[in-house]
């Protein structure tokens, strides 16, 4: 058992994963990735390197909707998995500070 897992049944999770696949194939998603920017750290990232991330994970009750999926770089995706929401906020603030500095 994961400590933060919600009481979701497998059918819900399968449905949301399927919806995510459909979104990933959509023109809407391709346009979002074409901008080439990670939603979280705001670093320029090649569209090919961007992955789909659920802001609220499916396992926490998040849905595969346009408001809940964002393109993010592999680094953010890897880091986010290991962090609690509050720690993730701190990581983001740091990442955005770095991106402000490099933008000057
Ligand atoms: Zn990123």
Automatic annotation (TrEMBL):
Lineage of producing organism: Bacteria, Pseudomonadati, Thermodesulfobacteriota, Desulfobacteria, Desulfobacterales
One Pfam family of this chain: HNH_5
Keyword annotations from UniProtKB, A to Z: Endonuclease, Hydrolase, Nuclease
UniProt GO molecular function: endonuclease activity
PANTHER family reported for this sequence: SLL1193 PROTEIN (PTHR33877), TYPE IV METHYL-DIRECTED RESTRICTION ENZYME ECOKMCRA (PTHR33877:SF1)
InterPro entries the record matches: HNH_5 (IPR029471), HNH_nuc (IPR003615), NA-targeting_endonuclease (IPR052892)
Entry keyword annotation includes Kinase: no
Record protein name field: HNH endonuclease domain-containing protein
Organism name: Desulfonema magnum
HNH nuclease domain segment(s): 27-78
């Amino acid at each position: 058992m994961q400590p933060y897992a919600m009481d979701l049944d497998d059918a819900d999770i399968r449905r949301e994963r399927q919806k995510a696949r459909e979104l990933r194939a959509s023109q809407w998603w391709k346009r979002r990735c074409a901008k080439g920017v990670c939603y979280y750290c705001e670093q320029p990232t090649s569209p090919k390197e961007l992955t789909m991330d659920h802001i609220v994970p499916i396992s926490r009750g998040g849905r595969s909707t346009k408001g809940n999926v964002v393109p993010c770089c592999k680094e953010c995706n890897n880091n986010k998995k290991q962090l609690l929401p509050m720690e993730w906020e701190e990581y983001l603030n740091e990442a955005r500070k770095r991106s402000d500095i490099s933008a000057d």
